[in-house]
């Protein structure tokens, strides 16, 4: 049996700044208006595309951690955001960019 401290999503949260995790919890809770503990990736895509606020690569990063039935827990949501941030940071270093790329 595995202990809960070795579960991957917890390590993902630990790797992010506490203030970032707290802000993302607020965002996740807004999207999880039914309080199920899950949000649908399709809903995120729809909401963020309508507002024109999708950062390039974000949806693709979230898709990588989405369950087969299209749902994201908070931990998976943060894991997807972390993937996107790491990719952006890597691209920024290689291209000398200083702002987040917009889709």
From TrEMBL:
Q: Which domain of life is it from?
A: Eukaryota
PANTHER family hit by this protein: FI14130P, SUPPRESSOR APC DOMAIN-CONTAINING PROTEIN 2
Q: Where is the Suppressor APC domain?
A: 16-90
Q: What is this protein called?
A: Suppressor APC domain-containing protein
Q: Which InterPro entries match?
A: SAPC2_1/2 (IPR026828), SAPC2_N (IPR057953)
Q: Which Pfam families match?
A: SAPC2_N (PF25825)
């Amino acid at each position: 049996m595995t202990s809960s401290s070795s579960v991957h999503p917890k390590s993902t949260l630990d790797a992010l700044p506490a203030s970032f995790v707290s802000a993302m919890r607020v965002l996740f809770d807004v999207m999880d208006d039914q309080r199920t503990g899950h949000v649908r990736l399709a809903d995120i895509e729809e909401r963020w595309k309508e507002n024109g606020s999708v950062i390039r690569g974000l949806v693709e990063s979230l898709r990588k951690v989405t369950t087969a039935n299209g749902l994201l827990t908070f931990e998976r949501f943060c894991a997807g955001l972390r993937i996107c941030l790491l990719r952006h940071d890597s691209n920024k270093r290689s291209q000398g960019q200083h702002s987040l790329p917009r889709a």
